[in-house]
Amino acid sequence: MAYITSASIDKALPDGSTAAVWSGGDSTKVEQAIETAQGEVDGYLLSGGYTVPLRRPPENIKNYTIDIAVYNLAVMSRFREDAADGLLRIKYDKALDFLKGVATGKYRIPLQGVGGDEVSTPSIGYKVGSRDKMKLGGFWDGGL
């Protein structure tokens, strides 16, 4: 299941431009940009312990996927020469920073189950256990 579509990209592009224009009419470039973006997002989510692809991705994940796809499309199509240094790059870097935080456990993604109930979040690798009781003979006699 794709998190975004070419229509999602169209809505995000400035000045009423479209993904078709940015790709020079090559729909395979648009699909490749979307697939590459989702693969990148899923890679970070998987590293964070999430099951991918997300069945119902939250809006922030969709938006970050759009930002990555738009940047990929601009670079692949060489449509925007300023993509590497301009606003597109800033949004791309912001998306990656967030996703890296998800991968390391700094950020968590709220996932919605049926009826809007939050479902389980990934484990972050803590091991819970106990040790033998420490003998305090001679240090504490139970009184004050």
Explain what the structure shows.
48% of the residues lie in helices and 0% in strands. With 144 residues, it is mostly helical. The chain has one domain. The protein is globular.
Q: What structural category arises from helix and sheet content?
A: mainly alpha
Give the domain tally: 1
| CA radius of gyration | 23 Å
Number of helices: 5
- Unreliable stretches (pLDDT < 50, length at least 5) are 113-120, 126-131
Q: Roughly what fraction of the amino acids lie in strands?
A: under 5%
Note the run of SSEs as H and E: HHHHH
Shape: globular
Instruction: Provide the residue-averaged pLDDT.
Output: 80
Distance, first to last CA: 65 Å
Describe how the helices and strands are arranged.
Layout: H1 6-12, H2 19-22, H3 27-47, H4 59-77, H5 87-104
Helix pairs in contact: 3-4, 3-5, 4-5
Would you summarize the structure shown here?
The protein has 144 residues and is mainly α. It has five helices and no strands.
Question: Which tags fit this structure?
Answer:
5 helices, mainly alpha, 144 residues, single chain
